[in-house]
Structure formats: structure tokens, C-alpha cells
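Title: Comparing notes on inverse folding

I've been comparing how different people in this forum approach sequence design from structure. To keep things fair, I'm posting one structure and asking everyone to reply with a full sequence. Here's the target:
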């Protein structure tokens, strides 16, 4: 066995000695937060005064909840639920059609913006990004500093984010 970090002479390029670090960024409320931003609606601060909001999509002749804000989630409404069932839980439910294209465009813009942290950013699904921060974290005081900066800036944009860090994208 070769020493850790040494190149494999038999198979060049197999091991460079550099450990990959992949930051997974999940934006669980992306669709709803994009809707609030696009419509310039203000999220009310007090939970007891918020009107629950769901974004809906049609499938097989029925209307379903595609995304729900925190007030709707607190009422027991969840994505995938039939809108009729959601209205049974909360008759005053506010609805709007989902816009997957606008969500995808916003995610692409966020991916471009994340270039401030690393040149290697990839869209992951409908509400996530992968950032390969290998060799970049030291510019922000380490991995914790980079993650704190990213979280703070996203919160400043009004986005809810959850971050995780691992050696591979699927970990």
C-alpha cells in the first residue's frame, strides 16, 4: 500500500491526496419563499396571525398541495395532500398555483450566486444545490465559517436553508 496522500503510480490519477468536501444545500421552502418574494407579499411575523398558504398543482384531474408555508404545515397540511383535504383542515387556506419554471430559474440564479464560494456548483433536484468546496473553505475561515456565511446570506434573502457537509454528494 502506498502512503496516504501519495499518487498511485500503477494507476495515475486514481488518488490525488485531496479529500473532496461536498456541501449539500437544501432549500425546503424554496417554492413558497419564491412566491412571497415574487408577489411582494410580506410574511407576517406572528404565527397566530398568518393565513396559511399552499401552492397547488393539478394531477389526474385533481388539485394537490405542491408546497406549503409554515403556517399551513402547522395546521397539518403537507405537500402531496389533496387540496380538498387541506381545506377541510383549514377553511381559510390561501392558495396560489405553483410555478416550477420560476422555481427552477431561481435555483439556477442561486447556483450562479454560489460561485462566490466555489466554482463547482450543481443543481440537485428541485430544491437543492451541491457545492464542491474542496480547497475553498479556508477563504472563509474554514468549513464552519463558509457554512455560517452562506446560511446568514441566504437568511438575508429570506430563504430557509439546511446545510450538510460530507466527502461525497450522496453521503
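Reply #1:
Here's my take.
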Amino acid at each position: 500500500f502506498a502512503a496516504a496522500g501519495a499518487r498511485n503510480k500503477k494507476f495515475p490519477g486514481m488518488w490525488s491526496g485531496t479529500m473532496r468536501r461536498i456541501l449539500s444545500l437544501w432549500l425546503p421552502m424554496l417554492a413558497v419563499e419564491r412566491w412571497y418574494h415574487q408577489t411582494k407579499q410580506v410574511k407576517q411575523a406572528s404565527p397566530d396571525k398568518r393565513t396559511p398558504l399552499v401552492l397547488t398543482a393539478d394531477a389526474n384531474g385533481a388539485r394537490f398541495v405542491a408546497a406549503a408555508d409554515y403556517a399551513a404545515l402547522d395546521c397539518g397540511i403537507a405537500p402531496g395532500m389533496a387540496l380538498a383535504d387541506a381545506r377541510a383542515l383549514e377553511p381559510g387556506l390561501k392558495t396560489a398555483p405553483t410555478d416550477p419554471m420560476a422555481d427552477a430559474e431561481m435555483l439556477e440564479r442561486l447556483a450562479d450566486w454560489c460561485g462566490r464560494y466555489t466554482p463547482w456548483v450543481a443543481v440537485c433536484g428541485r430544491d437543492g444545490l451541491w457545492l464542491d468546496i474542496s480547497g475553498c473553505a479556508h477563504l472563509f475561515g474554514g468549513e464552519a465559517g463558509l457554512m455560517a456565511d452562506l446560511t446568514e446570506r441566504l437568511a438575508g434573502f429570506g430563504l430557509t436553508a439546511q446545510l450538510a457537509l460530507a466527502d461525497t454528494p450522496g453521503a
